[in-house]
């Protein structure tokens, strides 16, 4: 019960009234007393009703209302009033707290009812504050009640704000975290990085590792954004596993992640951690019977003597990452000042390449494939070339990776296939014994759902039989989305198109996958071929690939043959075909005609001038 509980005034007054009646028998006195009594009883009834209404109102309040009084002698605070539904919820009502001091109620744990706040209120200040009690959040307002300039008591009102605090916490988390991976986001990165750099020093630097998934766009294009999001989640879990003390991980947008390393680390230790990240990302990701292979490119930048900004160090790491991508991917590179000039050159080159594609400035050169045993040409490969108006011939090793990163590779692939088919048909019409023409296809193309229909359309437009077309795909590109690639390759094979795995030995293919791919040939990467006479391990690898291909009844083409000793090795180990400068470099269409005209007659020992 509260201090405002009704008092039974009417009963007490009735006793007093009966006593007064005994003192006089005067009728007028008794009538006056009766009228006064009736009036007083009505007032008492109203007072009782008001008191009961007040008590019910206090008890019905959702929040908590209380009074605090201060006893100077004991130097303690007391609660003469503590009511409301919230009071009942937390198990504290007037009946329980009355006449008990703050210390008696809560001991030293006064987190809900701060004595320090009461002290301020008794000095005459109105105030509000947030606090916790038993895992719940509250908001309290204190108002001092004064008489003659002295605060006699304070009135408090408390409302629970747990729901709002949790909502605010959630909103704050959402503002600074990526919803897909729950990693800190770009906004949090900038806030943290600015603070770290501001407090960094020569002996306590900050290192940024800028990580970007290689060719992730192909996953989204081929499998859709839902699968792409699942891949990002899988990769983020792997990257989280790499975390160490003083290292934080953030996700930017898309397929980009940032590691921030606090404290001094040697270059070798930084690179070691970078390679740890690369190795963790490489194993296949399994999603609904799909096996997806991905790699990372990582750029690294370290703060100087406290003079760098977050934008600058991130920009440097980004440049190193981009430089890494166009230099082969799946690697870690530390930023250096000369990368800036190279990066600007790449940006300029990208702009020029876009114009070259629009203006049909690209050309094709053709390199023969040669039968190791007979020396006769058994195919030609179409290779794209770019003669820059100002810089001359640009290496495909420079502009093809650039085209892939800039999203231009599909346009180039389509043009190469169309031009190669057109040229082959032209040679046939001119009476040349044109061999099968091979074109390289990027992962972007081979993973497209309708790719086989595109190939069919190109063949029909050029009226070229499918038996004259060979499609080469790299080992890594088919492994990125092996299920879809196998389906597409089966469709191409059923059309009569020859299929080859290019750069074999540099990727992740296993024997089980090799058995599933509907292919005709393996092309051994030139890095193994060039050192077969000087590197025993490479020679054994080449032998193993030839034997494996024979077991699977596949043709074998050795790339990059440049001398007779290597050719002799291939002949000795029964390799079927080869390409390389030993026979011919890639040639423009008008120069390759002579080779085509002699393709059924040519032998190595008869035409050394053609080498």
Task: Describe, in plain words, how this protein is organized in 3D.
Residues 346-600 form the EAL domain. Residues 204-337 form the GGDEF domain. InterPro entries: Biofilm_reg_signaling, EAL_dom, EAL_sf, GGDEF_dom, Nucleotide_cyclase, Rev_trsase/Diguanyl_cyclase. It comes from Halobacillus campisalis. With 611 residues, the protein is of the alpha/beta class. It folds into four domains: 9-60; 64-165, PAS domain (Beta-Lactamase), CATH 3.30.450; 182-335, Reverse transcriptase/Diguanylate cyclase domain (Alpha-Beta Plaits); 348-600, TIM Barrel (Alpha-Beta Barrel). 47% of the residues lie in helices and 22% in strands. The chain has 24 helices and 21 strands. The strands form four sheets. Strands 13-14-16-17-18-19-20-21 form an eight-stranded mixed β-barrel, surrounded by five helices. A hairpin with a 2-residue loop joins strand 3 and strand 4 (136-147). The longest helix has 34 residues, at 27-60.
Short descriptors:
Nucleotide_cyclase; Alpha-Beta Plaits; 22% strand; EAL_sf; alpha/beta; disordered N terminus; 611 residues; EAL_dom; 5-stranded antiparallel β-sheet; Bifunctional diguanylate cyclase/phosphodiesterase
Let me know the CATH homologous superfamily of the largest domain. EAL domain
CATH architecture of the largest domain: Alpha-Beta Barrel
CATH topology category name of the largest domain = TIM Barrel
User: What is the percentage of strand-forming residues?
Assistant: 15-25%
Proportion of residues in helical segments: 40-55%
Task: State the distance separating the first and last CA atoms.
Answer: 111 Å
Give the rounded overall mean pLDDT: 83
Low-confidence stretches: 1-9, 600-611
Radius of gyration (CA) equals 43 Å
From the helix content, strand content and strand pairing, which structural class follows?
alpha/beta
């Amino acid at each position: 019960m509260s201090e405002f509980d009704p008092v039974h005034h009417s009963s007490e007054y009735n006793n007093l009234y009966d006593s007064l009646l005994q003192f006089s028998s005067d009728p007028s006195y008794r009538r006056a007393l009766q009228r006064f009594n009736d009036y007083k009883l009505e007032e008492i009834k109203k007072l009782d009703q008001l008191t009961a209404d007040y008590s019910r109102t206090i008890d019905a309040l959702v929040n908590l209302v209380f009074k605090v009084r201060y006893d100077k002698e004991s130097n303690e605070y007391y609660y003469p009033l503590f009511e409301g539904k919230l009071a009942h919820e937390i198990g504290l009502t007037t009946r329980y707290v009355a006449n008990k001091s703050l210390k008696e109620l809560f001991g030293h744990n006064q987190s809900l009812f701060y004595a320090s706040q009461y002290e301020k209120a008794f000095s005459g200040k109105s105030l509000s504050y947030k606090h916790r009690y038993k895992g719940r959040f509250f908001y309290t307002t204190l108002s001092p009640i004064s008489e003659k300039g002295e605060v006699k008591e304070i009135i408090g009102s408390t409302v629970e704000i747990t729901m709002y605090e949790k909502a605010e916490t959630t909103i704050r988390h959402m503002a600074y975290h990526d919803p897909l991976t729950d990693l800190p986001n770009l906004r949090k990165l900038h806030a943290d990085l600015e603070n770290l750099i501001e407090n960094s020093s020569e002996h306590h630097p900050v290192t940024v590792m800028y990580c970007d998934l290689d060719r992730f766009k192909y996953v989204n294009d081929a499998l859709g954004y839902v699968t792409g999001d699942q891949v990002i989640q899988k990769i983020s879990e792997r990257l989280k596993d790499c975390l160490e003390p003083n290292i934080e991980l953030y996700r930017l947008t898309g397929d980009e992640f940032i590691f921030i390393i606090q404290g001094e680390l040697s270059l070798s230790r930084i690179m070691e951690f970078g390679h740890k990240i690369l190795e963790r990302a490489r194993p296949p990701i399994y999603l609904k019977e799909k096996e997806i292979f991905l790699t990372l490119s990582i750029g690294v930048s370290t703060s100087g003597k406290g003079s760098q900004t977050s934008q600058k160090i991130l920009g440097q790491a980004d440049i190193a990452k981009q430089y890494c991508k166009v230099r082969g991917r799946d690697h870690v590179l530390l930023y250096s000042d000369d990368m800036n000039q190279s990066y600007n050159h790449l940006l300029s080159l990208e702009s020029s390449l876009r114009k070259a594609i629009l203006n049909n400035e690209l050309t094709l050169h053709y390199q023969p494939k040669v039968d190791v045993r007979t020396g006769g040409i058994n195919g030609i490969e179409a290779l794209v070339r770019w003669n820059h108006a100002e810089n001359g011939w640009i290496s495909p090793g420079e502009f093809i990776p650039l085209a892939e990163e800039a999203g231009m590779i599909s346009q180039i692939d389509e043009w190469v296939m169309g031009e190669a088919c057109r040229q082959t048909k032209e040679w046939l019409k001119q009476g040349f014994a044109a061999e099968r023409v091979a074109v390289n296809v990027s992962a972007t193309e081979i993973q497209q759902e309708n790719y086989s229909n595109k190939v069919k359309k190109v063949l029909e437009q050029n009226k070229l039989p499918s038996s004259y077309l060979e499609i080469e795909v790299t080992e890594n590109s088919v492994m990125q989305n092996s299920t879809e690639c196998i389906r597409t390759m089966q469709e191409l094979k059923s059309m009569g198109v020859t299929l080859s795995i290019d750069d074999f030995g540099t990727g992740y293919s296993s024997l089980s996958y090799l058995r599933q791919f509907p292919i005709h040939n393996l092309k051994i990467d030139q890095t193994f071929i060039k050192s077969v006479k000087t590197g025993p391990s490479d020679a054994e690898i080449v032998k193993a690939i030839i034997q494996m291909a024979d077991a699977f009844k596949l043709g074998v083409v050795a790339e990059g043959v440049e001398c007779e000793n290597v050719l002799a090795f291939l002949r000795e180990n029964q390799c079927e075909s080869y390409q390389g400068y030993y026979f011919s470099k890639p040639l423009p269409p008008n120069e390759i005609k002579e080779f085509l005209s002699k393709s059924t007659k040519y032998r190595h020992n008869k035409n050394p001038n053609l080498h």
